[in-house]
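Hey, can you fold this?
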Amino acid sequence: MSHPDHTLTSKRIPERDMYFTSDSLLPENQQPLMITVAPFGAQWLPADYTQDIAVSWKDQVQKAVDCYNAGATVLHVRVRDPQTGHISKSFAEYCDFIGMLRHAVPRMILQLGGSISLAPESEEQADWQGYDTRHLLTEIEPRPDQVTIALGTTQMNPLSLTTPDDVQGTRFADPVIRNEYQNMIVDAAPAFYIEHLKRLRAHGIQPYFATAHIHHLEEIEHLIRTGVYMGPVNHTLTAIGGSGFCGRNPFDFFEYLRRSPDGSVMTMESIWRTVAPFAAMAIALGVHIRCGIEDNLWNRKGERMSSAQQVDQIVRLAKELKRAVATGDNARELSKLGVWYNSAEETLDALGLPPNRKDGQLGFVVKETDGKLRGATAGSDGHALAEQIGAASARSGAEG
């Protein structure tokens, strides 16, 4: 299956795009836009959105195909049991579904949600699966391309950014369900994620870092500097609110982007009807975006919007800003699937981060230079003088 050519084609994929120079906002200098779609909606049951929640295997696969044809190149995978309509907890069904997707959308990046299930019954406590169960995701065959991984146990409460209008006609209108979700805990202590990173590498699956705030970037860097993780950094800022996650303040997004390693690949994720505004900002700034009914159900207030329609909306925004939309091959190259590094220093260099401090080294740690101080060019009332520019150039050439 060929991916549709939605906008411009990109001749070159830059390695590092998060250090902003004077030409960083020009679309021809930006990476092709990767659109991640989450169309399976782990928190929903079929009655919540009968027009867009796929239940049969055929319909679930078709949902992926529709989103790919609309322009998405990364598929956030959940597996729904066709017999019950609930998110599956069957290892065999995960293996079978990944196999179906490999056949139907072979160029799409298959990103498996690392929490397995977030849709409890009303009488059950909302919780993540145990560590042993979650480690089993590394053994799925055929292998997914990525498995999302959380760093640090924290509260996950999207209801802080949820209004009655957002959940109209869904199970979240039930106060019992809301109570379960607002008390949800993301259980991801170092005992989990350090072991999980080892197993993912052993099975050749790329970890995809699902972060909640800037301090998770600090933990990723710590894991790299200590040699625990040695590979590309693909990450999503999951801005869904509550006391454990950042919310909708765009300056949180801007600061997270500023603090992201230059060689990493960042995606922005919001919730409900702010998915589209953050998509517009992400497109303009040269980063990537996620959408789908797992994040949002609405186009405008009171008007539902399917996952494929959300992808199509983002493609239209990209077209207006003249930013290329990634093909499946673009997305795989950008994500560096199959790439691993062999040392902390190699990983730091690939991400554009300073090397580790050497024993006895004082001061700020920076990349090595030749140490030469270049002479300043003199000028008159703010304008350089032509003869002095020439002289400065000649001196620079002699020093080199």
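Oh, and this one too while you're at it.
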Amino acid sequence: MSKRVKEILSWYSSDCPGTLANLARILNHGRLGGTGKLVILPVDQGFEHGPARSFAKNAAGYDPRYHFELAIDAGCNAYAAPLGFLEAGAAEFAGDVPLILKLNNSDSLYGGSDPAPAVTGSVDDALRLGCAAIGFTIYPASALRNEMYQQIRELGEEAKRKGLAVVVWSYPRGSGISKKGETAIDIVAYAAQIAAQLGAHLIKVKPPTEHVEQDAAKKVYESERIPIATLADRIRHVVQSAFGGRRIVIFSGGEAKGNDAMFDEIRGLRDGTDFDYEMQMAGMNGAMAPEVQTVFLPASPAVRPITATLVRQITGMGGDVSAFVPAGVATRLKQKFAGKS
């Protein structure tokens, strides 16, 4: 077992050996096994959005076994799905990939601004199917959020008692926030904190935008100068919000993207999480061997990507962005922001 995985397991000292072993199964599996990074394939779209919307573009997806094979061939750390999909392939693919049983789901047949998923599986179902963990979605900002919090508290207690890990999808949605607020940095960070407080081992949130939804939070972000200009900044802040980085946070979800946008997002995730890990290593090195100096060597500005958001912010504050963009773009930006405070 790698040192990184051992370090992560040490964050969960209150859990039983069975739960720690199942966390290790997930962390050690797949192409990222042992690195402390995770890619989980979740397939609950059929329940959430209907079969045609979910699988018509790739008809192989109607067959539950396809998704097992996809998770295995892609080298994912785990595969998560509702009860029916896992029952259709758990025996055939037993031991090939760690499984996570999603214990609650919503359908799209009834409208309303406040989601209220139904409990659709049990901890015993997860054990019967050989799962390493249970999964549960909460919707902070829904009028029915407290019911979800109570459900995952009870299910999480049972799962941990029986040696399973707990994965919480924490997706803010509902009448308590705006649509834009669902991915606002303050709301996503809050959602990660709520999931951690509810006892999640792994927390899934959406990549946050720089929008700040709450007026009270905005004052703090400004007064404390919390960096949120780049995706990497925001990733570090959300990870920090999950018990100072001592809970596993996975970023996923959101609207469909093109390849370029997807790769830009992945780079932001990598930059944020890598820096956080490197800072922890530096702190440990300093404590264990004070004579050793840690030096960070970031990529040079010439080859390191810079986001359009950061370029606009620099221009808006009167800064010079000629080193980051072509001369024509710098000129147009300067003209656009001329006279603006």
